């Protein structure tokens, strides 16, 4: 059974600037890795701020369920700048799941109880007439 993939949009929230550590070369890009509910990371997407139609964003398809996105700032030498940022996400129920049944409640409907009883009595009386 194949699972229908879910399309998601990943957008980095960029606001302002941060000081570049003295040990790093100039900033080059963000490397963004999406890991879906299968647990397998997708190939890294490199974002430089000139993406179209929206800067710092891309679309990808994932397996339904929970996953995560990790963005790592890279310098021109490919070294990590600072600490990677990870964001969890959920697209809803994971593939291969179904609602868990915890019980069944049956109650009499007062409006139909009287009608049902009268109908049963009439049916029984008619049956007796035919059989007799």
Provide structural commentary.
This protein has 132 residues and is α+β, with helices and mostly antiparallel strands. It has a domain at 6-90: Immunoglobulin-like (Sandwich), CATH 2.60.40. Helices cover 17% and strands 34% of the residues. The protein is built from 1 helix and 6 strands. It has one helix spanning 110-131; strands at 6-11, 27-35, 45-47, 57-62, 66-75, 80-90. The strands form 2 sheets. A 4-stranded antiparallel sheet has the order 3-2-5-6, with no helix packed on it. A two-stranded antiparallel ribbon has the order 1-4. The longest helix has 22 residues, at 110-131. The chain is elongated and about 80 Å long. Residues 126-132 have low confidence and may be disordered.
